[in-house]
Structures are given as C-alpha cells and as structure tokens.
Design brief:
Layout lengths: L1 H28 L5 H28 L28 H18 L1 H19 L10
Length: 138
Amino acid sequence: MRTHIVIYWILGVFQIFLAALYTGWNLASTGTIEWFGTIAFTFGAGFMAWFAVYLQLVQKKQGGMLVEDQLHADIDDGGPELGHFHPFSWWPITLALSISMIVLGIAIGFWFAYVSVPLLIISVVGWVFEGYYGRAAR
C-alpha cells in the first residue's frame, strides 16, 4: 500500500504542476485565465491528495504491512480465493444485453424498457442458479 500512497502523492504534485503550467500558458497566450481547465487540474490534485491521505490512514489503522508490501512474501500469499466462476457461462452476456436494452428503452421509449425487464430477471436468476443445475452443477 505504501507504493500506492507514493504514486498518489506524485500524481497530486504533478496535477498541481499541470494546473500552474496550464494557467500560465493561458495567461501568456490570451491574457486571461481559462477557468475550467485550471479548476479541473486543481480538483484533480485535491482528489489525488485526498486519496493518498485516506490510504495513509487505512495503512496506519491496519497496524502493519500488507502481504504485498513484504519483500519475502510469495505471490500467492496475499491472494484470497475469490469464489467459483463458470468459465463458459453465457449468462453475463444475456445480462449485459438486457441492461443495455433497458437503457435503450429509457432513451427511446419506456415500452421497450418494460419489455426488457423480464429478460433481466431471467438473466439474473439464470446466472445466480447456474451452479445448481445441468453440467455445471456442483
């Protein structure tokens, strides 16, 4: 986590540098400040600093180094088991299709979204219960 903290501090300082450079460039070329870019770079620097401080507080609260930060640790020491995933599942594709049909329905007409909701329900139920039936049953 220490590496992440250092990276975010470096990015914050770089954003401050970019804000100053952007503002100076606009003053030199047009004689006015272009506020949108200046504020965007400044807020970007603030976000990077805020996130670095947050990570510092989290690291301090943990009371020790993470496995990823230890030099003698193996790669698989810090990797928890994420769960069981079916490698040849078609349900994520149907779920993405149904969600995009609902968003499209909201954009062009709600009747299309209403027609797409049953496909969403079928996709979610199929993906959740995929491990309980057929060849993928455990």
